[in-house]
Amino acid sequence: MKKIMIIANPSSGKEQSEEYIEKLKSILSETTQEIKVNKTKEKGDAENYAHKAAEEDFDTVIAMGGDGTMHEVVNGLRKNDQSTALGIVPLGTVNNFAKALGIPNDPLEAIEVFSDAQIVPIDTGRINDTYFVSSVSAGPIPETVQHVDSEMKTTFGPLAYFIQGVKALDQETVYPFTLLFDGKEVKEQYSLMIIALSNSVAGIQNFIPEATIEDGKLYFLGLKETNLHQKLVLVPMLFQNHADYSDQVDMIPFSKAQIRLDKENDLKTTIDGEVGLSFPAEVEVFPHSLNVLIPAKSTVVEE
Ligand SMILES: Nc1ncnc2c1ncn2[C@@H]1O[C@H](COP(=O)(O)OP(=O)(O)OP(=O)(O)O)[C@@H](O)[C@H]1O
């Protein structure tokens, strides 16, 4: 490793990035000629720094932050056609992307990975012009969860999302969609849709057991019209890895899709946990399009 840029979000998770940056620098200094540290101040900074790193031929970018920071860094890297590798130190609340890659959730353990890491190519997804590394979702549950603020996250951790998500369970709104999966049309009313790259969704591992982040596929999961009682049975089932998808759930692997909402509505997507665009949308997978550093001898496929 010759030139490394560290992009750190000081506001992520429990706000301990200073300590971790020093630790990371001391591990990297033995093998690296140039280490540049950039701390983000606001939305968009992480994407801009990553874009610059790719342009300026940095070999590796190490992103320190939560899923929002990872999302921005990947967008910065993917918008430039360079092969800059990505290393991850999870500092966020959920850290779904890190989990999908088998990176330790403890930042100090994640930093140790860089003394003996391997580079593997993983898939990325794109919805219209935005790349994603975990998932895209839409419906009352993701919309409600978008309102979790950073104070709630610092106080409750991942539970903050659960508390907020439960509030939306009794909403019976469904949205009529027309979807084209690799040329095959589906017309259906869904109350929740999730498009995932790996088996880990919203920090829950094994959500889609057969999915891996390097299999060249995206996975669509749509929850049809359900009342509160049905949701109380179904949602925990989904969250507890029971892949016994009932009549109320569609599960469709695909490479390319077009999604149209057949109703005037400003339903917004959630992309990697951040508020995203509304419909219509084109979604596509880019197999093996991003090099990531993961622990040596580990695989990105979790059991
Ligand atoms: N210095 C900063 N102070 C406050 N907010 C910042 C700063 N730098 C970046 N941000 C904001 O932080 C957002 C990303 O936060 P991130 O997702 O990494 O952490 P988190 O919210 O703690 O974790 P999670 O997404 O897992 O809940 C960015 O979209 C940006 O708006």
UniProtKB/TrEMBL annotation:
Q: List, alphabetically, the GO terms of the cellular component aspect.
A: plasma membrane
GO process terms (BP): phospholipid biosynthetic process
- One Pfam assignment: YegS_C
Q: Where is the DAGKc domain?
A: 1-131
Keyword Isomerase listed: no
Is-annotated flag, keyword Coiled coil? no
The cofactor(s) it depends on are: Mg(2+)
One Gene Ontology term of the molecular function aspect: ATP-dependent diacylglycerol kinase activity
> Could you tell me which SUPFAM superfamilies the record lists for this protein?
NAD kinase/diacylglycerol kinase-like
Report which superkingdom the organism of origin falls in.
Bacteria
Q: Which UniProt keywords apply?
A: ATP-binding, Kinase, Lipid biosynthesis, Lipid metabolism, Magnesium, Metal-binding, Nucleotide-binding, Phospholipid biosynthesis, Phospholipid metabolism, Transferase
Q: Which family does it belong to?
A: Belongs to the diacylglycerol/lipid kinase family.
Record-given protein name: Lipid kinase, YegS/Rv2252/BmrU family
Q: Which organism is it from?
A: Desemzia incerta
Print the organism lineage: Bacteria, Bacillati, Bacillota, Bacilli, Lactobacillales
